[in-house]
Amino acid sequence: MQKIPIDLAAPGMKLAKPVTKEGGMTIMAEGMELTDSLISRLDNMKIDRITVQGNPVDMGGAGSGTVYAERVERLDTLFRRYAKDKWMMRVKGRMAQYFQIKAAAQEAKRKAMEALDKESEDVEENGDETNGGGE
User: Fold this and answer.
1) Which of 28, 29, 57, 30 is nearest to 45 (CA)?
2) Domain around 120
3) Mean pLDDT to the nearest integer, 92-100
4) Confidence (pLDDT) at 135
């Protein structure tokens, strides 16, 4: 089971936990298989993360160089005095998980924007060649 940002969700993944709204209303049941349209609906409903079966996304190095990745790195320093306090270590673990998810989402958005930029550059280049050939 893995909690991932909605930006990293892909068709074919199955929900390990139901998706609920803030009030507790279930939007999608556990075990549902994601499709492009379901992912789009979740995104439109401002659902930012979901829990899926297995570990389909490698989040180990996701988002390195992002603000959130820097925050994960700082956690050791911030919690250095609490190494023997099991509750503080749980807080540190939750914070690390949260920042890793945010870093992965930030990285996914950056990659998507780069892909769109590259696609638009390719279209412009092909459009220029097509227009230039007719003159």
Assistant:
1) 28
2) 60-135
3) 87
4) 46
